[in-house]
């Protein structure tokens, strides 16, 4: 007596498709774990955040987006000097 269709055997393309999908899902899971770990570590070190902010200011100065006076003022803010409260403007 036959059960489950035509003998219950899988065609070769079905097995290959299943293997490809499993590899894709595992790759997606590994990538997601890597992205979560990488984003969790990003910005955890205040020194790294200051360095990144300083590099951004350097690029803005080099591109002519800000002048030297504004650059020095913003560098002072990054370094913790001249702290500005929320009410100041």
Written overview of the protein:
- The chain is mainly alpha-helical and 89 residues long.
- The protein has helices at 12-41, 46-62, 68-79.
- The longest helix is centred in the N-terminal third of the chain and has 30 residues, at 12-41.
- It folds into 2 domains: 14-44; 45-83.
Short description:
This protein is mostly helical and about 90 residues long.
Low-confidence runs? none
- Tally of separate helices: 3
> What does the largest sheet look like?
none
Secondary-structure-based class equals mainly alpha
Please tell me how large the radius of gyration is.
28 Å
Number of domains: 2
Task: Give the overall average pLDDT.
Answer: 80
Shape: rod-shaped
Q: Give the H and E element order.
A: HHH
Q: What's the total number of strands?
A: 0
Helix content: 55-70%
Strand content: under 5%
How far is the first residue's CA from the last residue's CA?
A: 85 Å
């Amino acid at each position: 007596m036959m059960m489950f269709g035509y003998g219950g055997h899988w065609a070769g393309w079905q097995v290959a498709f299943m293997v490809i999908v499993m590899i894709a899902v595992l790759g997606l899971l590994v990538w997601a774990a890597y992205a979560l770990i990488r984003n969790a570590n990003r910005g955890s070190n205040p020194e790294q955040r200051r360095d990144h902010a300083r590099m951004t200011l350097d690029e803005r100065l080099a591109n002519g987006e800000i002048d030297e006076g504004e650059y020095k003022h913003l560098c002072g803010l990054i370094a913790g000097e001249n702290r500005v409260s929320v009410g100041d403007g």
